[in-house]
User: What shape does this take?
Amino acid sequence: MRVFDVHAGLIKDYSDFTDSLVQVRDERIAVHLADERERKVRWPDPWISLNPTFAPGGTVDELVRSDVLHADCARYFRAKRAEDDPGQRSLALYQHQRAAIEAAQQRGSYVLTTGTGSGKSLSYIVPIVDAILRAPREDRISAIVVYPMNALANSQLHELTKYLAWGIPQADRKVTFARYTGQESAADRERVFQRRPDILLTNYVMLEYLLTRPHERQVLIGAARGLRFLVLDELHTYRGRQGADVALLVRRLREACAAPEMKCVGTSATMATAKTFAETQDQVSRVASRLFGVDVLPSAVIGETLRRATEARVASDSELDKAVETAVAVAIDRGQAGEGRPYDELANDPLAIWVEDTFGLETDETDGRLKRRTPTTLPKAAAELAQRIGRTEEECAAAISAMLAEGAAAKDPETERPLFAFRLHQFLTKGDTVYVSLQPPETRRITSQYQVSVPGQRDWPLLPLAFCRECGHEYLEVTRAADTDGVYYLARTNTPVSKENTEPGYLYLAAEDDPDAAWPDDPLAAGRIPDTWLDPAGSARPKVLSRLAEHLPKTVWVGADGRETPPGKGTQAWFVAVPFRFCLRCRVSYEQPRIKDFAKLATFAAEGRSSAVSLLSVSVLRGLRAQTDLPDSARKLLTFVDNRQDASLQAGHLNDFVQVTRLRGALWKAAAAAGERGLRHDEAAEKVTDALDLPLRSFSKIEDPRFSQRDNVLRALRAAVAYRIYADLERGWRVTMPNLEQTGLLAFDYVDLAEIAAEQDLWADTHALLRDDAPHHRA
Assistant: This one.
């Protein structure tokens, strides 16, 4: 898989998306933003880290032969790929997983604090299954596993199904399990009541309900008397008040289950950040003991034991230089359908050794343990390598990325694990808006970092900008306030708590070299007032409607300190109060004042979070589908959100995003196919429906409509498509997804317009401006 290609596509798509949201007319501001993009302020280089190789702890079969595990564990814990697959080989455990099994068998509580991807779930599932097999308790709950999120419980349910059910005949399934998190149907809950599982997966809120609801307490807590294991996954999430609640919950559960010998198990990747592992053990021991209400000794805090994937040696500069050249050459061959080098050969490659040292491992100076290295970026690593071997940074960056890709494809023949399992940590931000000082456009200070005032000039405020969505002219978002010294302007975000004598609005400025932008003294004569603001009745000279006259811009002069000055001093500007009613530059007006200003003016601080997430998701999926070496089952994206409400909102937004995109694509395709003739409104729905080419099952409740039914179903689809086409073309309702007309991909014309305009007889009795006009201008 070409990870860096997917990443490059993602960054390009997100950059194009954010750039498309805001037009910038001012050249100095545009140059400032271009410089920001060049310096990667909003999306810095990704951090790269390697999943380390863990020290082996033997296979499950080996532990069974040594009588460490029950004999049936050998049937359950195997590498399985499908429901009917009994597993071709025994699972290979890590050293920390074996240490957890031994800790559980010594009748003690323990905590596993290892990194992501270290198989923490097996460190408690294997000893739990082993204990159940050794001493079965029919219709009794032996272990309760508590997760902070239902998504984790759902994932673990799949893992248990894979190990304890796949490839195992129904009669031989000796360990039962069930999920009880509040998202189950009534039938599923009743099934749990009727046949209590050996292992119950839940969350801490539902566990509280099990202790307080009479029926559930009687049935499930009653079945958990003498409970053997209580597991708290992601232990670091239980802190503060929530941690205190969970600590008391653990004590109440132990008492309710009459389980003084209950073993408490905790897992976490980020429990402490001490300098040495001994200090980490001590800190985690104290926290776990308070949380569980039992002594968790420092020796019962199990960490990861790492080993090198590559050879343990230091490569010379000349070896590295040659390896860089080889890595690029191999990458070119792979791009031409060639194959990478074998695992063993690659593990001894000087550049592979250097990559593991740079991105993966370092030695703890205090105890000599191997530990994970802090992630770094590709440019930093390339600069370090270039300085060492004398090549350019571009060559080194290409070689490093090629080595990472080759290492990810090279699999260990025994474990099928890649030499390098690397991750890109990309942070994306919408960034802050643009701030300027209150000075003429030619000399004002421009920054995108939030500051109250200009550095070195505490009395000069920095004001945020908003940009007209049509022409890109900038407006300063201000609050107009007054005190005993007069009127002054400040950033709207810094408005005083007391809102007396304040008025929110915008300041409009014009550069000296752009005289057409300045607001004229007589805007009516200059034709700068929107037509809808004029009263056509009465005198020959139109006048502004009386109800709108007070909303016209007010000429003001302001100093750099934000205070109004006498005319001719300071900078000339024009103040307009909210709501924003029309652009002083392009005259685009908004006749519904209740529409939020967000739909009229754009800022770089508001990109539309849901739209951004949808676009990023689609970009990743497009990148994955372009990878010809990936199976379909691997072309997936997993996204975590804070809560189910956000997940539901984002899922709906993504579905809508895809639907709108497909509809617009079909409309553009149908219009393009029509050629110069164009697409007539009465045939648009039919042509767009044909371009969509949807499978019948995607919109018909009837699986196989026949005879007139089929025509009726297609007619209904065309009617729905027709409505969707014109609803989507409504201007401005999708702020972050301007329609095809706004983006210039679709143009509207009128039938016979040119011919009618050229027919002079039709205009003989009209106003002289029309009667005597040239046909093309009349059109």
The chain has a mean pLDDT of 90. The radius of gyration is 34 Å.
